[in-house]
Design a protein that fits this description.
alpha/beta
Length: 367
């Protein structure tokens, strides 16, 4: 089978790294010869690669631009002679293209990266000639890449794949007990980085209104970030800290998402939210901000609700409606689960990447 070298900066416990592991492990199981490189460090998502028998090399990059790391990557490319190199996100995209030796490189864009400055866009434009395809995980990401100079004929969209989650009633009961919350509590969950992009303060405001309208509602906040202390102070100021739990990083985050009655996400921009996809796969109804990538996942009024960015009252109103109407919540949750299984399964994602790799191999072989 053809050989693919996949390159990423780290294997931390974030969404892109999880997708990297799912793709490499899945294609290895289908018979592809997969090899993985982490430029800086491994992490929790090293484990699925090891379990699937995917060889992993960590290069221990020490500098923003590390010539020794680049030289090591070039040696790996020369030794393995991969048929395709697939890189993930800005740092790996740059290193992989510089080390490719003329081999086809698929670069992965995973977010609407507003953080990028002029020099990052200049690097991307400079290396576009060494790029065979640019993959966005949503149409919103692909459109953003085109706006920043990527040729439209190189862009393709392959959405993330989500592993189905099954709610576990015993886990939910134990979780509420461990958090000293009443057993009849109705969890509303946020899971993500507590940073300005995610607008977590909008949700603290929303819960300030929600807990007055629905005393059984509790707010579970999974994740860390620079806004955590501010959000904790805000919850204390509003007088609902006793119904709000800041859980930090959790290895069981997916189980907490599946145990929710409602999941909400207030982001002002996203690539494609794995958290929303995981919630929908478990039949949890999402309430999300009205941004392009969220609209690609959530059909408003059918599989969830879409609210204007910054509209805390809207988040509160839809959460209260869902918590108060179990039949509506069940119906919309079932529709959300069906959508994930039909359009966003891991198998569908693997099929699409296989088709892309074979297309590149055909182009490489020529007529």
């Amino acid at each position: 089978m053809p050989r693919v070298l996949s390159v990423i900066a780290t294997l931390d416990g974030s969404g892109a790294e999880k997708q990297f592991a799912l793709l490499n492990a899945g294609l290895q199981a289908r018979g592809w010869d997969m090899h993985a490189v982490a430029l800086t460090r491994g992490g929790p998502n090293s484990q699925p690669l090891d379990a699937a028998g995917v060889p992993l090399t960590v290069l221990h990059k020490a500098l923003k631009f590390d010539p020794l790391c680049l030289a090591r990557l070039r040696r790996i490319v020369a030794k393995l002679k991969p048929d395709v190199i697939h890189s993930w996100m800005f740092t790996a995209n740059a290193y992989a293209r510089m080390a490719s030796g003329g081999r086809p490189v698929v670069t992965g864009e995973r977010c609407v990266d507003r953080w990028k400055g002029g020099w990052q866009h200049a690097v991307d434009r400079r290396l576009i000639g060494r790029t065979a395809r640019v993959v966005g995980n949503s149409q919103a990401v692909a459109d953003f890449a085109i706006e920043r100079g990527a040729p439209a004929d190189l862009l393709t969209v392959i959405p993330n794949g989500v592993e189905p989650l099954t709610p576990d009633p015993s886990f939910r009961a134990n979780l509420l007990s461990s958090l000293q919350l009443p057993p009849d509590s109705q969890p509303v969950v946020f899971a993500g980085r507590l940073a300005s992009q995610k607008r977590p303060e909008d949700l603290i405001w929303a819960f300030q209104l929600l807990h007055q309208a629905n005393p059984s509602a509790v707010h579970l906040i999974v994740g860390e970030g620079p806004l955590r202390e501010r959000c904790e102070r805000q919850a204390l100021h509003f007088g609902h800290a006793h119904r709000c739990r800041f859980l930090g990083h959790r290895q069981d985050a997916a189980k907490i998402i599946a145990a929710a009655d409602v999941l909400w996400l207030a982001s002002e921009y996203e690539g494609q939210s794995n958290t929303v996809m995981e919630a929908m796969s478990a039949g949890v109804v999402p309430i999300v901000s009205d941004i392009p990538s969220n609209r690609e996942l959530v059909a408003d009024g059918e599989t969830g609700f879409v609210v204007k960015v910054g509209d805390s009252l809207g988040f509160c109103q839809f959460a209260d409606r869902l918590l108060s109407a179990g039949d509506l919540r069940s119906r919309m949750g079932a529709a959300a689960g069906d959508r994930m299984r039909e359009e966003f399964s891991v198998d569908v994602m693997l099929d699409r990447y296989e088709a892309l790799y074979r297309e590149l191999l055909d182009e490489k072989a020529g007529p």
